[in-house]
Amino acid sequence: MPPQLYEFHLPLSPEDLLKSGGVNQYVVQEVVSIRHLPTQLKAFQAAFRAQGPLAILEHFDTVYSILHHFRSIDPGLKEDALEFLTKVVSHHSQELPAILDDAALSASDRSAHLNALKMNCYALIRLLESFETVASQKSLMDLDVGGKNKKSRSKAAHGFDWEEERQPILQLLTQLLQLDIRHLWNHSVIEEEFVSLVTGCCYRLLENPTITHQRNRPTREAVTHLLGVALTRYNHMLSATVKIIQMLQHFEHLAPVLVAAVSLWVTDYGMKSIVGEIVREIGQKCPQELSRDALGAKGFASFLTELAERVPATLLSSMCMLLDHLDGENYMMRNAVLAAMTEMVLQVLHGDHLEEAARETRDQFLDTLQAHGHDVSSFVRSRVLQLFTRIVQQKALPLTRFQAVVALAVGRLADKSVLVCKNAIQLLASFLANNPFSCKLSDTDLAGPLQKETQKLQEMRAQRQSAAAALVEPEEEWEAMLPELKSTLQQLLEHPQEEEEIPEESAVAETAEEVKGHIRQLLAKARYKQAVILARAATGHFPESDPFRQTEPEGSEETRFLNLLGIIFKGPAASTQGCNGSKVPGQTVATDTPSVSEPEGCGGSDELVKQEMLVQYLQDAYSFSRKISEAIGIISKMMYENTTTVVQEVIEFFVMVFQFGVPQALFGVRRMLPLVWSKEPGVREAVLNAYRQLYLSPKGDSARARAQALIQNLSLLLVDASVGTIQCLEEILCEFVQKDELKPAVTQLLWERATEKVPCSALERCSSVMLLGMLARGKPEIVGSNLDTLVSIGLDRKSPPDYRLAQQVCQAIANISDRRKPSLGRRHPPFRLPQEHGLFERLRDMVTAGFAHPDPLWIPFKEAAVSLTYQLAEGPEVICAQMLQGCARQALEKLEDKSFSQEDSRQTVPMLPTFLLMHLLSLAGDIALQQLVHLEQAVSGELCRRRVLQEEQAHKTKEPKEKNSGSETTMEEELGLTGATADDTEAELIRGICELELLEGKQVLAAFVPLLLKVCNNPGLYSNADLCAAASLALGKFCMISTTFCDSQLRLLFTMLEKSSLPTVRSNLMVATGDLAIRFPNLVDPWTPHLYARLRDPAKQVRKTAGLVMTHLILKDMVKVKGQVSEMAVLLVDPEPQIAALARNFFNELAHKGNAIYNLLPDIISRLSDPEGGVEEEPFRTIMKQLLAYITKDKQNESLVEKLCQRFRTARTDRQHRDLAYCVSQLPLTERGLHKMLDNFNCFGDKLSDESIFSAFLAAVGKLRRGAKPEGRATIDEFEQKLRACHTRGLDATEAPEHRSQRAAPVEKPHTGSGWQPVASVGSDSDFLTPELRRTTRRLPRTQQRTKKKPKIVFSSDDESSGEELSAEMTEDETPRKTTPIRRASARRPRS
């Protein structure tokens, strides 16, 4: 068929071109074989050179054959075909403008060019798509191969880079579409298939995931421009909208690409309407469907979010169509809509010059944002806080909403989601950084100005109100009185006889002005009748005077009188507003008054407005400061969260708050100090950076000024600081010193303050010495090189002595020594000073001199002095013995003086001052403990060091033959064995000294033992609180020395621990017994129940100390974790927050020790629900809710469910039944756990009549139902039906079991009435009695070891507790003598 007679139809699929579909429709005649394709392509090229672009009409079959065999033909042929077709289309696009402008173009020529255009475009686009398909498949395969030179290898192999070839083709198609080619079609309407052909290739290119890569940016831009031309010239909007929606649903990578395309169409092509079309399609999507289509929802959300960032003004008009998604289930869509609203607030709806409609829209958007701050999804709540952070940072939040959003952020700090809390902290930090109030936000500093200015405003308002009352507009007053005045005037005119007589002489005697004033007063007092009568009389007396002159004779008499009275009343009233109250005629005043009074009124009004604005500003600033202070209290509790990022945010927040001068910020800055010991490097570094930022970069004009500011800030941290705080700060400063981050000017200024070269107070001097000691830990030479100076500073002989400064000097000097135990490989002897050094002489003199003076600061000083002596002195025991002997000598002298002075009196027993005895015992205790530490660390370490040196020396002197005589392995083993034996020998030597020498014979310490025991054994005689505390602490230190002495005094120690009326004594002894439990575990083990008993001490100080001690002992495995650990659980609900936090920390750490909490839970539940020694129901639930949260393994949950269900049989009371049911409801039930409950249903089925028990089981089933699989729902339904059936039957179903229990009840009575009764703190774990189980329990091997009087079901951890052990009134035969070595393998022992 000749080319002019057929018509080329664009096929839906390539196969359609092989079929004849209609009259004159072009059909491919022959698919050329691969072998003949090169020849046919050359023929096509030759025809093109002769005929131009129309050559395609005769050679289309060749191109079609290339497409048909594309995967099989040679790559070079493909590339040649692509290059040639590109050339053909380019040539055709250059010819088309002239052809389209030719008015004489025949129909046949137009048809030929149309067919050639469609054929050329079809061939080029299909070839482009084929190359793209192969390239995308190859890119997926290359993902497995990897390698940086992947692209270069591809180019080297083929000499062709497809990624660089796409852009020119797309640009060529864009140029073609920009021509007015519609004239080639009939009626100038381009067929839809042609537009779809061109745009379809664009969408296929976009579907390739690699299109987002940076190297493909030219291709993306070319595709965008090509589609932009199709949109503007070829009515492609509807198709583009549908295609964009489809691609967003199925291709995750396309959202940013399509956003860039749409924004380009809006800005460069003016196609703003496409935004509305796309948003309408998204808005019409069903929210329920999107909740199931996560990929589509994510695509739409990303698209809307980024589109709002690019073209917010265009999207604004379409926002109403997206509001339905705010109520949808998919949180990503809610986030996207909220983010779009935020972008519009930031970019469009901001500023002070918004129109009313725009302001309302902005307020609606902000209202929506605030409302979703309480969204059910934590992701939405978190996103809202992030969006508000952006708004605040860009200062786009109206001041009227400041307080509301701050309150929202503070409220979200208590959110259960860590992510929400983190973003709430960030929002508050942004509020601080961008607050419009002040750079210093101290509510105490703001309260004073606010009160002052508020009072001033109230005074101004009162003045204004009084002035307004005095200057009421006369017109208003006249209008108010006019009706009544008219009525009075009419009556007088109608009945003139009612007029009262006015004395004529009074009217004559007055002037016209005086009469006017009189009339005005009568009108003001509402005496209208007298005013009218007087006015009528005045018109007769003053006919020529204003205003009594009759100017309107033609009016009625009533009107004339009303006008007269109006002029009199209104005129003079207006004149009072004139300057200086000058009396001017009424008419003149009325006209001149506005020009005089108006500026004054406006000035007063302006002042009032300014004052109101000032008060409002101060009120907002004060409220903001109060909210920040409230937030500080909440955020400070989050400083020890498990999430590192949250902790870092908290630290950064406190840094910012501190910089804004909020007083409470210092609390948070101190609270973050212990985090310097964190195992998380990020947290530790955050703390160090915070202190660098706060303290190492102070403001100042000079280095000295900056050093002074740094020292002043650090000194504030030391005010009322605890020992722990000081240690943490010391660690931080040590880090700074070691990294040379502290300038020399700081050290120089500290020395100047310490030596009083710079005027400073005593406390500042003391803090300077303390800081020098901290720096010495990092660089000992800071103090070591100036040791004599430091000694002269704090230990000089002055009166009165400064013991606080002396104590800090001792601690600073102590930092130059190495307090760690010397390692075996150390060659050099430890740093020590000779006994004759002036330091020790000063220390000895100062201790002995202060002994006889009742200064409370002497005790901590002498403790530091003794510690320093043992750390630095050679032979410290000699120096300390001299101290102790000197003090004892003074005491004896004082006693002799008392005895001599009392010879003549009736008193026969001399009395020693209490403080002297306290000082003596305290000093003896300190020396005893330090002597023990010195022996076990310094002496033992020195013996090891010398032994190692001797062994090395001996090893060097051996002959070479001897060295090689034995094998190397054997020699190392012998050396190791020898070293171990030597270690044991040295340890035995030290132990022998402690056991046999320190407290025996004529040793100095032994002389104080009788005195110490006498004071401790006679609390009635020695009742002074300080003396008792010192004696008890000294006894604990003496007990640390010797096993024999400790064993003999344990009964006294625990009696004092139990019976002392002084909380300080009990607290001290708790620490002492804890130390003894570590040093002599076998001795203290029988007394462990008494340690647990202190956890219920009535004094909070003792409970806190007991909690700390037991935490260390249990976590270090120094005491057995018995059922009495329930006492630690009780601390979880302690009214003191610090004690409750301590208990939470204990269980957090215990949870990391394997299955410890799981193993203890049955005992804890039994003890806490025990009616005779447990806790109330509400505290029980609070405790168990926290403890059961640690059970995370499914097997443990299932086992606990089974145990708890079986526990219903042994429970005696309804309260225990409810407690067990509550515990079951708190466990995360699994399907296997449900089967366990079904298997044990008979254990608790008869208890379901109780509403709370029934509700607890229903709650457990409800949790399981929410996440259950469809196949498991049948079992859940079956179990729930059984629950409801038992609950409905109530007591009828349990009548028989109840009768049995009633018959069994008398059997329990003899047992519960026996001599043994469980006590709260050390009682048995479980008192659940089951008569039917008594025979069974007797057959068990473990219960055979127990007495027959206690047929109870108990747990192994309770085998060692007994009621008698709690009594502190112990006789000799009651003292536990059976010592059991600590072994974790078994928790039971035979009772003695």
From TrEMBL:
Cellular compartments annotated: Chromosome; Cytoplasm; Nucleus
Pfam families: Cnd1 (PF12717), Cnd1_N (PF12922)
Basic residues biased stretches: 1336-1352
Biased segments, Basic and acidic residues type: 951-965, 1290-1311
Comp. bias (Acidic residues): 1357-1373
Entry's Gene Ontology cellular component terms: centriolar satellite; ciliary basal body; condensed chromosome, centromeric region; condensin complex; cytosol; nuclear chromosome; nucleoplasm
One annotated GO molecular function: histone binding
Cross-referenced InterPro entries: ARM-like, ARM-type_fold, CND1/NCAPD3, Cnd1_C, Condensin_cplx_su1, Condensin_cplx_su1_N
SUPFAM superfamilies the UniProt entry points to: ARM repeat (SSF48371)
Disordered: annotated span: 951-978, 1290-1392
Broad class of the protein's primary localization: nucleus
Record domain Condensin complex subunit 1 C-terminal: where: 1064-1225
The Condensin complex subunit 1 N-terminal domain, residue ranges: 77-240
Keyword set, alphabetical order: Cell cycle, Cell division, Chromosome, Cytoplasm, DNA condensation, Mitosis, Nucleus, Phosphoprotein
GO terms under biological process: cell division; meiotic chromosome condensation; mitotic chromosome condensation; positive regulation of chromosome condensation
Function statement: Regulatory subunit of the condensin complex, a complex required for conversion of interphase chromatin into mitotic-like condense chromosomes. The condensin complex probably introduces positive supercoils into relaxed DNA in the presence of type I topoisomerases and converts nicked DNA into positive knotted forms in the presence of type II topoisomerases. May target the condensin complex to DNA via its C-terminal domain. May promote the resolution of double-strand DNA catenanes (intertwines) between sister chromatids.
Quaternary structure annotation from Swiss-Prot or TrEMBL: Component of the condensin complex, which contains the SMC2 and SMC4 heterodimer, and three non SMC subunits that probably regulate the complex: NCAPH/BRRN1, NCAPD2/CAPD2 and NCAPG. Interacts with histones H1 and H3.
Family designation: Belongs to the CND1 (condensin subunit 1) family.
Entry protein name: Condensin complex subunit 1
Species assigned in the record: Chinchilla lanigera (Long-tailed chinchilla)
Phylogenetic placement of the source organism: Eukaryota, Metazoa, Chordata, Craniata, Vertebrata
